[in-house]
Amino acid sequence: MSEIGFVALFSGINVGGNRIVKMAELRAFFEELGFTNVASYVQSGNVVFRAAKADAVALTRTIEAAFEKRWGFYSRIMVRDAAWFERLVADNPYPEVAEDPTKLHAMALEREPTAEEIGRLAEKCTGPERFAVKGDVLYLHAPDGLGRSKFAEILPRTLKVPGTTRNWRSVLALAEMVSPAPR
């Protein structure tokens, strides 16, 4: 069985000096779990790897349980395959702002939000930001940057669908790293 590429997106590690996990240790951890071609991208917890098992849900459960056992705390992990990243990039509803990757973000969601959840979020989007949900991805254009966005601050607790956010530069880098063929 041939291996396929995946990305593990960690939530809540190496942020604000808390829950520090060295990327070299995280890469070694993935190799110990039997994954191949393991690479990390930036310090916030993005691991690209190859696995024979094609079930992202099962991979997520395996990695989360082993991670918690190793480091002693829980980190939500979203495992996505190369095809998911290809769709993420292709479906970008804001191509006109993709050139400024600090203003465009993608939030990988644990599940597709309901129309009611999206509606509740839309009611709160009153600033300069705009968002679009496509499947299990929320795209966010924050013209003043994520750090200054009041909407980004309330987004997780309003939407109530667990997720983890990456800026567009990280999205493109991870898509390139996990890609099965040269782009």
In short:
The chain has 183 residues and is α+β, with helices and mostly antiparallel strands. The protein has 6 helices and 8 strands.
| Anisotropy-based shape | globular
Main β-sheet, spatial strand arrangement:
2-3-1-4
Give the biggest sheet: 4 strands, antiparallel
Q: By CATH's scheme, which homologous superfamily of the largest domain applies?
A: SP0830-like domains
Structural class comes to alpha+beta
Low-confidence stretches: none
DSSP, total strands: 8
Mean pLDDT: 91
What CATH calls the topology of the largest domain is Alpha-Beta Plaits
Question: Termini, distance in Å?
Answer: 24 Å
Q: Could you say what the CATH architecture of the largest domain is?
A: 2-Layer Sandwich
Please count the helical segments.
6
Please trace the helix and strand order, writing H or E for each element.
EHEEHEHEHEEHEH
Q: Helicity range of the residues?
A: 25-40%
Output the CATH class name of the largest domain.
Alpha Beta
Radius of gyration: 16 Å
Strand content: 15-25%
Instruction: State the domain count.
Output: 2
Organism: Mesorhizobium hungaricum
Pfam family, one: DUF1697
Protein name: DUF1697 domain-containing protein
InterPro entries: DUF1697
